[in-house]
Specification:
single chain; alpha+beta; 6 helices; 6 strands; elongated
Length: 202
């Protein structure tokens, strides 16, 4: 059962699905029940080491022992905690509309700037991976990211050149391919956390 369970965990890793303790326990019980039904002439009473499906509950104790036997471990990838104050946003929209009308701004003068980020080496949040995964570079938990602020006006006829913020001022790929930063179609900026700061905004 545990060998089949590890295969299932591996398959979930390959497709990038998050695996929780609850998922593993439920799948373990399902596999055990299925194996018992498929086994002809199986009688749990013949061996005290083999519990029946009624006895096997995939409990927390079993899970902790399974982790030790199999070597699976939990990894956590941290990201920014996203929270939005919807009431404040609605209030601001009304006050902003009043300012635009009061001052007589036109759509060409109204700009919106926002940022988006890509954590392009991110593992699924809070998941269990098999023991050998920590030795594979492709599955090492990494959080390499960049931030891309975008800005345009309300009339949609003017887009500010994008600003890309990365943790490296001169990435290896640029050096390897002789890429000059003024050749790329973004303003290239860098800081250690790849954050869009006030200085970059100005």
């Amino acid at each position: 059962m545990e060998r089949l369970l590890l295969i299932w965990i591996k398959d979930r890793e390959i497709v990038g699905n998050t695996i929780t303790e609850t998922n593993i326990c439920e799948k373990a019980h399902a596999i055990f029940t299925g194996l018992k039904e498929e086994s002809s002439g199986y009688d749990a009473r013949e061996s005290s080491a083999e519990p029946s499906s009624d006895d096997f509950k995939a409990s927390r104790g079993w899970f902790e022992k399974f982790k030790k036997r199999s070597g699976i471990h939990s990894v956590v990838c941290h990201g920014e905690a996203a929270s939005a104050d919807t009431k404040a946003a609605a209030d601001f929209a009304k006050s902003f509309e009043w300012i635009v009308q009061e001052e007589g701004y036109v759509e060409q003068q109204v700009f919106n700037c926002d940022e988006t980020g890509l954590i392009w080496k991110k593992m699924p949040s809070r998941t269990y991976i098999t023991a050998e995964e920590k030795k594979l570079p492709g599955h090492k938990p990494m959080k390499d990211r960049f931030t891309l602020p975008l800005c345009a006006n309300a009339s949609r006829d003017f887009k500010v050149k994008p600003l890309l913020v990365y943790h490296s001022e001169n990435p290896r790929a640029f050096k390897a391919h002789n890429v000059e930063k003024d050749q790329v179609h973004v303003f290239w900026r860098s800081n250690l956390k790849a954050w869009f700061t006030k200085q970059f905004f100005i």
